[in-house]
Amino acid sequence: MKQNMTYNLPILKYQNDQFIETTDSYVTEFPITIIINGEEFATIVCSPKDLEELVLGFIASEGVIKKKSEIKSISIDDSKGFAHVELTKEIDINFKKNTQRMISSCCGKSRAFYFNNDAVTAKVSQSKINITPQQIITMMDKLHEESKIFKETGGLHNAAISDGDDFYLHRSDIGRHNALDKLYGYCIEHDIPIRNKVLIFSGRISSEILIKASKIGVGIILSKSAPTNLAIGLAHDLNITAVGFIRDGSFNVYSHANRIQNQS
């Protein structure tokens, strides 16, 4: 049974000094449990779209796999909320014990448990990409244009990955980290090189988002919002260019500005 991304439900709205009966759009919150080689690995609360990409991107960012060839099969049962993954290898038993967990869609708290694994899977960027200020502004504008369900509900995070010119892919989810995993999963599934790509993101650049970008392997992350001090420290350490407050034709560059070249 295919799950809907949104639902229209009745509400009571207060407006112009009176209550009126109307309807409003809600985003769907959907739990999916990942089973790897017959054993439970994690449960993710997400938006019920692009689930195979989400699973693939998530287990890759967690260090379970390094390449698509390590996947024997992925089967999604969205009627029951399960993703069955068969690998061509066994998972180390200690790794499974350290990573099995419930992952909330809530921002901030859900990724606090990652630090030990993050230290192993985070990568210093080797990206050689250079982009112009106009490309930064154009990519953020395109993300805003693509964010149709957010405009309808206000309940989703939006993200995209691009090379600044020809390649552009957009995904959305109630969980900001999930949106990035979906992009990563798509690129793994379609054998798309990631190193010289740019992440475009609707939310703030927190440490968890910066670490996720490093796991994916990109060298630039763009946001319409603010970064945190920890995120910027990590960006300097991991050789990632962090750009925030991309609004109305302006932006701030917080780290590794050498990748941005003004050609005007």
TrEMBL record:
Q: Which Pfam families match?
A: FdhD-NarQ
- Report the Gene3D superfamilies cross-referenced here: 3.10.20.10, Cytidine Deaminase, domain 2 (3.40.140.10)
Q: Which residues are named in the active-site annotation?
A: C107 (cysteine persulfide intermediate)
Q: Does the keyword Cell cycle apply?
A: no
Keywords, A to Z, come to:
Cytoplasm, Molybdenum cofactor biosynthesis
Compartments in which it is found: Cytoplasm
Keyword Mitochondrion listed? The answer is: no
Transmembrane annotation, as ranges: none
Q: What does this protein do?
A: Required for formate dehydrogenase (FDH) activity. Acts as a sulfur carrier protein that transfers sulfur from IscS to the molybdenum cofactor prior to its insertion into FDH.
Concerning its family, UniProt says:
Belongs to the FdhD family.
Q: What is this protein called?
A: Sulfur carrier protein FdhD
